[in-house]
# Entry
Amino acid sequence: MIRAVLFDWYDTLARVDGDRIVAGRRQLAARAGVDAETMAALWRETAEQRMLGRLGSLEQEIAYILQRLGATPSPALVTELARIELDTWHAAVSLYPAARPTLATLKARGYRLGVVSNCSYPAGQAIEHAGLADLFDAFTLSFQVGLAKPQPEIYTHACQALGVTYAETMFVADGAFGELDAAAALGITTVLVEQEGQSRAYGSSSRWDYKVTTLAALLPLLEAQTDEPRGVASTDSSG
# Structure
C-alpha cells in the first residue's frame, strides 16, 4: 500500500520563467561590472557543483564566479548580489494551479509528502518561499544533501526522511535527469506528469508506471492503483 508521495519540484509542482532568470542575471552582472554573457557561461559551467552544494552558500557561489571573472567584489556587494539572485528566483517561480489543492487533499487523506529536487541554493530557497512547507513532511534538496537524481541514494534519503520503504512510495515527476527510471529501478511506483510550461531542458525518462496530465489526477490514481498490477507501461490518467 502506498503511504507516501514524493514530488519533484520544478516542472512538476512549479514552473520557472526562464526569461526572468536571464534578466535577473543580467542585472546582477551589470551591478558587478562584469560581462553578462561570460558570467552566464560560468553559471552553466558550475551548474553541477552548485546543484550539489560544493561551492558553499549563495554568497560564496557568487564570489567564486566573480573571482573567476577577475573581479574582487566587497562583502557588501556580494550580499547585494545574492539578494538580487534570490529576488529573481522568487519572482520567476509560480505554482501549478492544482499543486496546493492536490497536496492539501493528499495530506488530509493521511499520506506523507516529500519533495526530492535537483536544485541550487537559490532554486532551493524559492522552494521554501513558495508557501507549501506546511503540507510537506520532508524536503530532500540536492544542494543540501550532496546527492542528485538519478543517484539511487537520493531516493533512499528521501524515503528514510518520510519513514517509508520504496514499495510504500509513489514518485511524481516530469522525468528530467532520468529520474523516473532510477526510482522505478528501486521499486518505487512512478508517475510521469506532462503539463503546460515544462522546460524539457534536462532530459527525460523512458520508464514509468502511470502518466497524468494534471496533478489533480493523483488522488483517484492512488485510490485505484492498489488493485492494479504493477508494470512499466505508460498509463494515461487525466482525471
Observations:
- The radius of gyration is 19 Å.
- The first helix runs from residue 18 to 32.
- Confidence is low (pLDDT under 50) at residues 227-239.
